[in-house]
Design goal:
This protein is of the alpha/beta class and 648 residues long. It is built from 24 helices and 17 strands. The longest helix has 49 residues.
């Protein structure tokens, strides 16, 4: 009983359509679309060949009427499948078509079988054998044609073979009985082959599905950032090209934004990469909540993200959206026991009014970001006509820098650092100047920024340091030299060793040399900067942290560095006598320096009122235009001989 039940379940499974496997159904539908027209063609041709041998033997109803009806049905089904070549409807329609084909196989098989057997009584033995041959060869063709729809093939075989075997065995004619037995055995063998083929077919479809799924997954991974789940750099540029194509076609405006996190590096260094990764995930999630169908966000790498904004109406809209992004990212994020806070700077470029293609849009957005980080960190900057002019100047500057004779064209000027306790000038800060034979005098803010951006800044350091040391060697022993280092100069022991060799070759006492580093350099790689500072301190050089208060370094980072001085940025000094906030900031920075037992130099003093305010706070070392502008090397000796009181 159990075996009969199991056999019934297997038969049911063989007859069922795999509705839960739409891919297999579509594959069956496609295969039948190619094979069923051929099956009906075989049926029609064989039918009329059989009619030809019985046209004068059987009644017209059997030789004309019935064949015409069967042919019409065959042509109808052939046209149905022929019109759907290359077209795969939705899953519901596919299932319906396959169900109809299975159902129709019953009347079609019954119709052709009944008609063929009805011709048997007419004609001689050859005509009767032709009937048997028609049924045998046709059923074989039908089985092969419908082998991808096992349900229909089984129904057709069952109908035709059952009638064939019983009918011809009952004739008692030995030849026909033998034919019935042969056809039964051949049909059984063909059904086994059909089953094996169908099993292989379904397995291949499943394997193809798995392969496509794996391919899709690989494609997704290739275009997705593994940390945040956002589109990666590759997918960003693909999406940008597509968005630009739509903008060109529709005549709309598009914007590209590049966003860089401010203060991420210190947090990553302080709390570790796991916290840094979680922070990036949070940033990605926050950005994702701000985008809509017209906006896409991607992670380019590191702490840099990108935006594509379609159908932009105005720059005001871009600024408002950019400010919203910066505000959202500035909200503290709790990842450890204490909330951490970062900022974000955003550069935006628009198409087609500024950029003309994807490469230019990205380049302009990157330039706007660079300007934002330089002048208005934590804000959004839209690439403007002024930026375009500046970029053109930067390009000319870059070209001139690359072909410049740096030893001949670079010069050093010096600005005094004054001690307010009556000691006068205690040091000079060396500042770079460049006179290009092609561009003339290039402002330091112009060429230094370009040199930093193109990675040439450390090539400027060696000739400038050599000239500054040569001048400083002429000063009294109590006067120090302060010299600025770039982030690249602090980037590796190898770069630091080059400068150490220059210092030693100059004969200048390293104890009289203060090397200024920026918070940006510290943020790039704290451990690397520590190693470089240790090399300079081992020579006896002092180390000053320049532009203190404008970056994102933490107190723990300051304690980790072997500093000797802090320099308060000029932005806090301007009008501090009438700006309570600036006054309090400078007061706090002076107190912090004293607590850390570091000398503090306040730069940017330009008025007597600012100087008076600093004196009231106990400032001891100052620098600025109020005392002197940067001066050429030959004037430094004259300056040292002039009393400070005579200059103020």
């Amino acid at each position: 009983m159990a075996s009969i039940k199991g056999l019934g379940e297997r038969l049911r499974a063989m007859m069922d359509l795999p509705r839960d496997d739409p891919r297999l159904l579509r594959a069956q539908y496609t295969a039948l679309g190619r094979q069923l027209p051929m099956m009906y063609f075989i049926l029609v041709v064989n039918t009329w060949v059989l009619v030809a041998t019985h046209i004068h033997l059987a009644p017209a109803a059997l030789t004309l009427a019935m064949p015409t009806v069967l042919t019409a049905v065959s042509i109808w089904r052939t046209l149905y499948w022929w019109r759907r070549r290359g077209i795969v409807p939705d899953d519901r329609e596919v299932h319906g078509a396959l169900m109809r084909t299975g159902v129709l196989s019953i009347p079609v098989a019954v119709g052709f079988t009944a008609w063929a057997l009805s011709l048997y009584p007419y004609g001689d033995d050859y005509a009767r054998v032709h009937v048997a041959f028609f049924m045998a060869i046709t059923v074989i063709g039908c089985i092969f044609s419908m082998m991808h729809l096992r349900r229909a093939a089984l129904i057709t075989t069952a109908v035709v073979d059952t009638a064939f075997v019983f009918f011809f065995i009952n004739t008692g004619v030995p030849v026909l009985v033998a034919c019935a037995v042969n056809i039964l055995l051949v049909s059984i063998a063909m059904l086994v082959i059909l089953h094996n083929h169908y099993t292989t077919f379904t397995r291949l479809v499943a394997e193809q599905a798995r392969s496509e799924q794996l391919s899709d997954e690989n494609l997704r991974l290739a275009h997705e950032d593994s940390l945040t789940g956002l589109p990666n750099r590759r997918q960003f540029f693909i999406a940008l090209e597509q968005a630009l194509a739509r903008a060109r076609l529709e005549g709309t405006r598009l914007a590209v934004g590049i966003l860089d996190l401010d203060g991420f590096k210190p947090i990553n260094d302080l709390y570790g990469h796991s916290v840094g990764d979680r922070l990036l995930v949070q940033v990605g999630e926050r950005l994702s909540t701000l985008v809509d169908r017209r906006t896409r966000v991607a992670r380019l790498g590191g702490d840099e993200f990108a935006l594509i904004i379609e159908q932009v109406e105005s720059d005001a809209q871009l600024l408002a959206f950019g400010q919203l992004i910066c505000q959202v990212l500035a909200v503290p994020i709790t990842l450890t026991d204490v909330p951490v806070q970062i900022g974000a700077s955003l550069g935006v470029a628009t198409f087609p009014d500024r950029a003309t293609d994807a490469e230019q849009a990205f380049e302009f957005a990157d330039y706007a970001l660079y300007q934002s980080k330089r002048s208005q960190r934590g804000q959004v900057s839209v690439f403007s006509e002024q930026h375009q002019s500046q970029l053109q100047r930067d390009i000319l500057t870059e070209q001139a820098l690359r072909r410049a004779d740096l030893d001949a064209e670079l010069a050093v000027v010096f600005q005094p650092i004054i001690a307010l306790d009556g000691r006068g000038t205690v040091a000079f800060e060396a500042l770079a100047r460049w006179h290009s034979p092609h561009l003339g005098f290039v402002p330091p803010g112009q060429f230094i920024a370009v040199a930093e951006r193109i990675g040439m800044i450390n090539q400027l350091t060696v000739p400038l340091l050599r000239k500054a040391l040569a001048t400083a060697s002429q000063w009294p022993a109590e006067v120090r030299l302060s010299f600025n280092l770039s982030a690249r100069d602090c980037g590796s022991p190898k770069a630091a060793q080059v400068l150490i060799d220059v210092i030693r070759a100059s004969g200048f006492d390293p104890v009289r040399l203060d090397l200024e580093i920026t918070e940006t350099a510290v943020m790039q790689d704290l451990q690397q900067v520590q190693a470089v500072i240790a090399m300079f301190r081992g020579m006896g050089c002092g180390i000053s942290l320049d532009d203190f208060g404008t970056g994102y370094s933490s107190l723990s980072q300051l304690h980790a560095l072997a500093l000797t001085k802090l320099k308060v940025d000029r932005s806090f000094v301007s009008d501090m006598h009438i700006n309570p906030a600036s006054f309090k900031i400078v007061k706090s920075l002076l107190a912090l320096s004293a607590d850390m037992q570091l000398d503090c130099i306040v730069e940017g003093v330009e008025s007597a009122q600012e100087l008076s305010a600093l004196e009231s706070l106990g400032a001891k070392l100052v620098q600025g235009y109020y005392f002197a502008k940067p001066m050429p090397a030959q004037q430094t000796l004259e300056w040292l001989e002039t009393p400070i009181c005579a200059i103020q």
